[in-house]
Amino acid sequence: MRGMVLFTAAVLAAAGCAAQQQSGTAGAAGAGVTATGVKVGGVLTKTSATGYSTKDAEIGARARFERANAAGGVHGRRIEFVGAEDDTQDAAKGDAAAKKLVQKDGVFALVPVHAPNFGGAAFLEQQGVPWFGWATGPQWCGTKTGFGYNGCLAPKPGAGSQTWWGRQMADLLGGAQGKTVWVQTSDSSGSKYGGKTISQSFEAAGFTVVGVNSALPAAAPPPDWLPYVNKIMTSNQGKAPDVVVSVIAGTKFNAGLYAALKKAGYKGVLTDATSYDANILKDPAQAQAFEGVIAAPMFEPFESSAPEIRQMREDVEAVVPGTRLTQHLAIGYWSADIFLKVLEQTGKDLTRQKFLDTANSGFTYESAGFGRIQYPKDHDEPNGCGALVRIQGGAFQVARNMKCFDNVPLKP
Amino acid sequence: MSELLGYVLSGLVTGAIFALMGSGLTLSYAATGVFNFAHGAIGFLAALLHYELTVGLGVPSWAAAAAAVGVFAPALGYALHKAMFRGLAQAGETAQIVGTIGLTIALPALGLFLVDLLGWLPVDVAHPRGLGPTPAATVTVLGTALDTDQLITFGFAVLAAAGLWVFLRHTPYGLRTRACVDRRGLARLRGIDADATSAVAWMLSSALAALAGVLAAPVLGLDSHAYTVLLFASATAAVFGRLRSVPWTFAAGLALGVVQNLVAGYADVFEEVTGLRTAVPVILLFAGLVLLNRSRERVAGSTAEDAPPPDYLAGLPAWRRRLPWAAGLAALLAFAFTAPDYYVGVAAQGLVLALIFCSFVVVTGIGGMVNLAQAAFAAMAALTCGWAFASGLPFFAAIVLGVLAATAVGVLVALPALRLGGRILTLATLALALLADQVLFQVDAFSNGTIGWPLPAIGFGFADTTSPRVRVVVLLALIAVVAWLVRNLERSASGRAILAVRSAPAAATTSGLSAPRAKIMLFALASAIAGLGGVLFAVSKGSITATDLPAFAGFVWLAVVVLQGVRRIGGAVLGGLIAAGFPELLANWGVSAHVGAILFGLGGVILAKHPDGVLAQLAERRHRRSPTSRPAVPQAPPASERVASAAGTAGRGDGEGPLFVLDRVVAGYGDCTVLRGVSLEVRAGEVVALLGANGAGKSTTCAVAAGDLPLTGGRVLLDGLDVTPWPAHRRARAGIFLAPEGRGVFPGLTVEENLRTWLPDPAPVYDRLPQLAARRTVAAGALSGGEQQLLTLAPALVRPPKVLIADEPSLGLAPRVVEQVFALFAELRERGVALLLVEEKATEALAVADRVAFMRLGEITWTGDRGDVDDDRLTAAYLGVA
Known about the structure:
The complex is a heterodimer. Chain A is of the alpha/beta class. Chain A has helices at 2-23, 56-70, 91-104, 121-127, 164-172, 189-204, 226-233, 251-263, 284-290, 307-319, 327-346, 352-359, and strands spanning 37-44, 78-86, 109-114, 131-135, 146-152, 160-161, 180-186, 208-216, 243-246, 269-272, 294-295, 363-367, 371-375, 385-392, 395-404, 408-409. Chain A is globular. Chain A starts with a helix and ends with a strand. In chain B, β8 (713-718) and β9 (721-722) form a beta hairpin. The longest helix of chain B has 31 residues, at 2-32. Chains A and B meet through α1, α3, α4, α6 and β8 of A and α1, β2, α8, α9 and α10 of B.
């Protein structure tokens, strides 16, 4: 026993020396930056047990970086995009992927990060590595290094919370007065939080929220929708509500809910944040379930005539001809776009610290593509911009173009 | 009221899917003893095939379903039976659980990989098609709107249930299956090919899983995860069928569907507790396990099933045994101080896992209990630590509190373990793990929502754990402490008490050992270790969230450790390093992640052959190679000599050759040889009495004769034909009938069904033995001892075998019944049957015997005619005096 203690002590001492030697080189200045290039890589949920995949974000980011490189790079430096790791929606794998990119591949920043259960936040914040992507989870918010392309979508109580969805819907429906809304979430704390922010958005726009329900099982779609649909159909004093907002992730969930609501005779408006996805129109049964649904993307729809969208289409066509534009592709594209803007403003003399200082001291950037982004403000709240798209006759139509609205403080 | 009716009706449809899935689970478990965690994965594969055929290739939906359910699934079941389940059935519980968990991961990966490889339609989770029209039409039944897919689901479930009932109750296959479920060993002795029966059970069970899978696909989508969730719900139904009764499982499945609907429809009071309603099947699973499935036999693992492998390295000096480990440690330390940060980080992550894995060594390796909740313990400790630190406690105190919390949860889990044993305990830990994931960790105040808690590094003044090198050293030191603890535990009085409780719970209790105390201690220690590992996991990551250590990770961990060897800390360390390093290697080689999952499943196949893991297998291989290690088994004489001696014995007597010959048989159990060259012969129409004291090897001789025990030397001849390599069921069909010690009846089958296992038509038996005719519909287990012995021998009367071997036929019977039994033997002799009667009590046997053989210490000491036996010979035979 005494031998072991001595051994342990000796080993610990040796480790201590080594660690001190190491600390000099960790987080070295100029990591990932050379005179001619900046190395960048991303973390996506390319595959997952539930089938959710954000892999298209890689094409989007690559398309934007290729255009920058074609224009001579940023301050003479080309973007060396090493591609994106797959975290399989597993927090531990996301953490490992972030470590691999920073420690093994030696990237300057992580672009795009688009993984709902990303686990590398603590490591990146501690190492001072910037990361850009879609900030759907609270691990993004309140950091100095995590840059959501449209701000932090999981604000803390008291911080700003979006109102654009409710207000855009009110504009679309010709006013919110006297109209009722049902918000459907699933039985997990993440989905319940989403239900809170979104019902607040509709209340701010003047709608009457008649119910926020989280009865749906979180793990897999319920085999039987009847009990859930019955509740909705009688929530508005025995009648159906005017609007049903679905805050459930997953096409399968939404398809099931919408088909069941229609089977029960629902005639009102259906809206959600995830249905702006060309894949769902491929299957006739599914297209029927989604007919008339109002999708709420947080970027300018691809059907828009804005020049930024035409540019995006051209950029993507140059990289992978024939690619269909998707939500995740757009998120990758706009994340890369904002990263390049910060890179440009930082100037010729580039380190991670200088980059972060530039981004976090009053950075503002506007684009028709994603609205407007301001850091450090949008580290703590969403940028408050969004659009509406209607699914009609098996195709998408722009219902409301991208527009930004003021946030309201999130109630506890 | 109509709303309630609607919930019940459409709940029955959902329940039909649970019922189908659950019935297959119960069927395969009852018939083979393997609880198949991969049952849902088989359903997923069938649904995937159906999708590819319909959406991808345009095959009509009904034809695709027929191909997936009627052809593909049975073929898959058969292949899995051959490759894995057959071996797993003999491999002990831990290997069984781990093997099928491996399949759960490997099968979907294999399917998706093949789809990629063949260039088939990429899987789109949301678009599988139902069996009915697409899109489904709506039909109103009793005021409830149901769609055509739902109606088809219910219709098929009813059809499948009826078909299954007819199959099991009214076909010879069904009878054989039920006989195997009842007493597998006896079934083999009655000429039932238990292996073929298992194959049928697996094919049928796979087809049921596939049917459920195809029917559920339009609702669940092609999501392998959703199929695993479906499996857990179906397991609830199976548990309510006590894992034995298919009809009860079916009914429970239907009821579960209705209960889920009612909870979703009416139980709004639970809304405040996130996850509680989702967890209804899991809560029912746990309740069902605790209330219905109290273990009546074994309470922890048993020596019979989970015997440790022999210590093949026992002969090596201590330094030689430790040399590979010392070298490995030195290499790891050298690596830690020279390799780049990133790779050292991977090694450190591996050691974090290794520390958690050490807890499996305690609870499974030493305690013989399989615990699937280990990830929940680790998460519990990490979250508690994070919460306590965020609430302002000093970091060290927070760590201690975290470990204590895990220990407390471990003790809580140990409480049901006191009542339950074996697979039931495993399922209970599974239920608790899922419950922790779905309810406890969803409490925002505890897990801080989805953001979790940040944790600082552990500092030592001169260094802290942000450096992976420091983490490697700290973890090695902690693992050393755990190894030292485990070693002391094994050698202490408590360790011996645990082993006693594990091997023979009843004997341990009568020796004054407290089984509850031993188990609670094991669980407390194991969960403390897992908790410490969980805290270090969080510390090295810098934060902990509720989803960092999901329940399913615990299953995979168990599989990784068991593959290396769960009885030693070395296996845990190796497992941890492999778990962290292997994905890294695959990524470096650019191999698809599916391939990793498939390889992991192959591990299960290996486990079916080597249930004690890689380390034990390496030691065994070394042992086999070494020339000094051959056991000193009496060598069988060369073939020429054997033929001569057989001819010699055949030449003796009435000029008619012996019908049944044991020729210098050597046999035993493992390394222990029992029979040391036994030769015996029985002629047609002759009764040979084999006498000897307790432990002489008489029952082993019977087992060898019937083919229940393989020979290591010598041979068995029937009618001059060498039947040595034949398995028991083939020998039985060739006419060797063994009435085993105790009673040779299937207690769960009726008298009529018992007779039908050997006779196509039992009517003649009833003519001969009217007392059985009166009780033909009674379960054999309810008969008196005498009636059971008559029932054992009755089939032989109607369809006389060539050879009848009776092991202690008079044991425990009333004298009048003994008379009746021996009258039967006399009658069989008249009809030309060769009889071998094995008895400890000589009197009755000697009364009918023509010849007598005495047996002592695995050898025949004397053979001769009945007339040559006198009291001196009897005394000599039993007391060993010359």
